[in-house]
């Protein structure tokens, strides 16, 4: 499997282009703030043909470029129905005071073709097999996308703002829920093989095994004793 990514815009949100190999069809995960030019550059460099945009959740730092990217490529966007309202009204998702500060001159909206994700659904796109897991807590409609292991290639989890290297997503914005995110960590992340590569919405690549051993939040979700030691991250 081929994955190319880059941190986009003011919030450094990771945007990924995923394909079976360079020169083939791909999906675009989380084209956030000022991501359109980076997406175009990777498409040209690796001769990719996008067929869909996949959104892990609706916060503006993950969806700010969804309209120009979908429009330029003529592809649909996929999002969980509980977060779909954020495409047209991102300030509501952040709270009015914070939203007004962060939005500035960013113009957003729904692309022409929006499709809704379901928990446990399987997307067969661009020659990829992607399982969708609803993972509320950071937002009500947060999801992850995971690929199966293939020959010598480990499975991959696109975790959005559910799980980071050493931390998890914040839960203090509208729709956030601390108890829900702990349940999502337990249900979505803990059953995965330690070799699973975690590509998150912010920060560096990690693995489930590394986070199981070192991430206090994942340990707490699994019933380990002790309070989490690190601050939560993400918008």
TrEMBL record:
Keywords: Hydrolase, Metal-binding, Zinc. Its cofactor is Zn(2+). The keyword S-adenosyl-L-methionine does not apply. Residues 12-202 form the Metallo-beta-lactamase domain. Residues 214-235 are annotated as: Disordered. InterPro entries: MBL_Glyoxalase_II (IPR051453), Metallo-B-lactamas (IPR001279), RibonucZ/Hydroxyglut_hydro (IPR036866). PANTHER family: HYDROXYACYLGLUTATHIONE HYDROLASE GLOC. This is MBL fold metallo-hydrolase. It comes from Kitasatospora phosalacinea.
């Amino acid at each position: 499997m081929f994955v190319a990514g880059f941190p986009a815009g003011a919030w450094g949100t990771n945007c990924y282009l995923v394909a079976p190999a360079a020169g083939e069809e791909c999906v675009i995960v989380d084209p956030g703030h000022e991501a359109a030019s980076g997406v175009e550059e990777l498409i040209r460099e690796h001769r990719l043909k996008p067929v869909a945009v996949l959104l892990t959740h609706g916060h503006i730092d993950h969806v700010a470029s969804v309209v120009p990217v979908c429009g330029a490529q003529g592809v649909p966007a996929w999002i969980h129905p509980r977060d779909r309202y954020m495409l047209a009204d991102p300030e509501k998702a952040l709270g009015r005071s914070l939203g007004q500060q962060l939005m500035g001159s960013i113009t957003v909206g729904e692309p022409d073709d929006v499709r809704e994700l379901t928990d446990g659904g399987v997307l067969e796109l661009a020659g990829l097999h992607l399982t969708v897991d609803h993972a509320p807590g950071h937002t009500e409609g947060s999801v992850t996308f995971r690929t199966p292991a293939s020959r010598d290639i480990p499975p991959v989890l696109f975790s959005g703002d559910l799980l980071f290297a050493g931390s998890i997503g914040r839960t203090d914005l509208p729709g956030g829920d601390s108890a829900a995110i702990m349940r999502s960590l337990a249900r979505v992340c803990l059953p995965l093989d330690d070799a699973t590569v975690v590509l998150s919405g912010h920060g560096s690549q990690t693995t489930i095994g590394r986070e199981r051993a070192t991430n206090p939040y994942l340990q707490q979700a699994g019933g380990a004793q002790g309070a989490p030691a690190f601050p939560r991250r993400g918008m």
